[in-house]
Amino acid sequence: MKKEIKVEITSVYMDGKTIDEGIDELNDLKKTYSGTYKDLVLEWDCYDESKRLCLYGTREETDGEYNKRQEQAEKSKLFTEKRDREEYERLKKRFGNE
Fold first, then answer.
1. What are the residues facing 1 on neighbouring strands?
2. Strands, E assignment, 13-96
3. What contacts 45, CB < 8 A, 6 or more positions away?
4. pTM over 0.85
5. CA 46 – CA 21 distance, rounded (Å)
């Protein structure tokens, strides 16, 4: 089953803008992205000791993202089973049928 994923859409630069200019820019972003993304939110991200305002939204994962997630889950399951089997065999050898 496909999941809703949160993705960073774009950075939002408000430095030096008036409140009205900032509101206009946010309305433009809403108009541009609300058809593709749900739950649009602004969040501060910190990189290299600087802050930037980022627009995030949620969308359904693509077929490729879904397939990749399923492949990773299967690889993880196989790895865990292999590791558990190796541990079982090691303990069986060490302790036998006590």
1. none
2. 38-47, 50-60
3. 8, 51, 52, 53, 54
4. no
5. 24
C-alpha to C-alpha distance for 3 and 41, rounded to whole angstroms: 18
* CA atoms of 62 and 13, how far apart (whole Å): 29
Asked if residues 6 and 57 have their Cβ atoms less than 8 Å apart, the reply is yes
Task: Give the pair of three-digit tokens for residue 11.
Answer: 């950075």
Question: Average per-residue pLDDT in the chain?
Answer: 91
- Are the C-beta atoms of residues 42 and 50 closer than 8 Å to each other? no
Structure tokens at 30: 């809403």
User: What digits encode the pLDDT tens for the residues 16-66?
Assistant: 889 999 999 999 999 999 999 999 999 988 666 667 889 999 999 999 999
Place of tokens 């090691």: 90
Determine the distance from the C-alpha atom of residue 32 to the mean position of all C-alpha atoms in its chain, rounded to a whole number: 21
Buried/exposed code over 65-96 (b: 16+ C-beta within 10 A; e: otherwise): eeeeeeeeeeeeeeeeeeeeeeeeeeeeeeee
